[in-house]
Amino acid sequence: MLFMILTRHSSVTITYLMNPIITDPTSLFRPGSRLGQVLPTYEYRPQQEEMASHVWHALTTGSNLAIEAGTGIGKSLAYLVPAVTWVIKTRKRVAVSTYTRLLQSQLINQDIPLVRKLIPDLPKVAVAYGQENYLCRFRLRSRLARGLFDTRQEAATASRLLDWAETTTQGILLNYPHPLPAKLWHRICRDPTTCRRNDCPYFSDCFYYRARRNWEKSAMLIVNHSLFFAGLAAETELLPKMDAVIFDEANRLEDACVRHFGIRVSQRRLSQILDYICPVAGRGLIHALAHQAGIVENIEKEVGFCRNELLNFFQETESLLGPDAIRLRLKQPLQAVPVSALNRLSASLNKTARDADDEHLASELKGTARKLEDTANSLTEFMDLDTENAVQWVERTGANNINLISAPLDIAHKLKELVYPGFTSTIMTSATLTVADEFGFISSRLGLDQFKTLQLDSPFDHGHNSLLFVANKIPPPNHPDFNQAGAKLIQRILKASHGRALVLFTSYDMMNRVRNLIPQHSYTHLYQGELPVAQLLQQFRNDTHSVLFATQSFWQGIDVPGESLTCLIICRLPFEVPDDPRLTAIAEQLRKQRIDPFNTYQVPTAVLRFRQGFGRLIRTKKDRGVVCVLDRRILDRGYGNSFLKSLPKELPLTTSFNQVVRFLRKVDNPDI
Ligand code: SF4
């Protein structure tokens, strides 16, 4: 029998259609259960049942839990099913937070429909993206009406967007079916500094506010880590109140937290703000004031002054780096920081906004003034150089761009103070949380001392389906001959694997040096940075024998099941670069406490990243392949054991290249 409950929670109304039959969600994972009927690829996985049981227990007892769920367990369902059962029973609200939007959309588009088949009376589940992902009808229409686009092509694209706005229900960038320049989107997306809220003529129809009303009515909200933290910090409630939170991709929580609580002032971003009003070429906001020559002249003068001050400041800052350095840790405050120039321009724009009789123009001017003010405040905060709790540095990224960055060192206490006490249960999960089977490292980084921990192995048959090859006959990576020897070996491996390989580097520099030593013969070579990530991955999947050379983001989160990724080559153990300012500052702190930073921080950080890289190889039960590690330190050095002990126990290890060749032959001809 179904019945409906209306409940008030956190001053909102959520509608629950409650099915009283499900009392133990764990039972849904057992053989012969309903999951087998609704999921064609269902197979019983005891680890999945165990995970679901622990998630259910944590939610119902109000406790905290960290679960490492090896690849292939089916962890999304193992937390979603208990979580929705819990919200049905308790009439509370749960957040599921992921690091990537990719996983957010996978959860809402693939997993939740499946859960709905299992539990037909599922209460509302919504996905929430950051506000800049929603189209702002007011900005789009206002810019079109005033001809505020730089080129005819831009204006034509904006008109197409207007048509799309009439048909789309959500107005989310992710759903727009055509390529869209980022610069254009940023001018027409929801921007909190320009939004007119209740005064907006499109308020009742606004995509963003409609989404927010939807979030309020939802019992489960799928967010991402960065929105989650923004929601915590927002003065007005950005997200509805949640009772419990499940962090998937919890291994990335520290990154998200550091970004959120840190400061970043970017030269490029500041130039974009100034260009938005008064560009060097093209039409800025100022174009809408063309009929008021005096005002235009004044704004041009103020923007010009600010631009000069910024240019001088960033040139001065860049000179500290010299011609070659990429980043420099700051121990002394920078000189001539242009705070007053930013505030002066901000005041001038606010004054013009007050006098403007055009409401679009007024809100855009005020919004820009607010951004300049916020940047001035960030600069002031940055100059405090809080070296106890954070580290500050300048870095060069590409031509004409200097970033000023401040990053907090200790995230654990922030999470313990600001996150965990706000929820009855906090659940963390990821395929990689342990180092050599221990939770100690992640626990110290994320402050998990009040968490129960559980490690569940991957159900994949690594003993039979994969092989680990360590190249112990080439020099170690710090040897001058390494690149040459590594490139030769990569060619031999690619010949044996017939392409079908992902080659992972630890830096673009290393990738570029090695790729130049590898002639492109029979197989297509793809390089990170030469195409957008999604396109690159699509080509890599479609062209089975292609070889993808990549670094950084490709160590984690990419999913290429099947033959295209038969061989994974890890060129170097992924230690952070030794001059990374945050790493250096954390190491100093640890040394002060008489703790060895290498073994307690650098090695575990590298092991977790290495495990993420390793996890790219076997994505399904049918996948077979070889991982080639070209860094012999994994065998030669004492710390190598931490890496090896963190891999599946049954994984065979060889140093014989012939065995790799034999293994790959067998992959292609299982009968030999
Ligand atoms: S309410 Fe704000 S975000 Fe929505 S259409 Fe209006 S100005 Fe844009």
TrEMBL record:
Helicase ATP-binding domain sequence ranges: 34-294
GO BP annotation list: nucleobase-containing compound metabolic process
Gene Ontology MF term list: ATP binding; DNA helicase activity; hydrolase activity, acting on acid anhydrides, in phosphorus-containing anhydrides; nucleic acid binding
Domain of life: Bacteria
SMART domains: HELICc2
UniProt KW keywords: ATP-binding, Hydrolase, Nucleotide-binding
PROSITE patterns associated with the record: HELICASE_ATP_BIND_2
InterPro entries: ATP-dep_Helicase_C (IPR006555), DEAD/DEAH_box_helicase_dom (IPR011545), DinG/Rad3-like (IPR045028), Helic_SF1/SF2_ATP-bd_DinG/Rad3 (IPR014013), P-loop_NTPase (IPR027417)
Coiled-coil ranges per UniProt: none
SUPFAM superfamilies assigned: P-loop containing nucleoside triphosphate hydrolases
UniProt family annotation: Belongs to the helicase family. DinG subfamily.
Protein name in UniProt: Helicase ATP-binding domain-containing protein
Organism: candidate division WOR-3 bacterium JGI_Cruoil_03_51_56
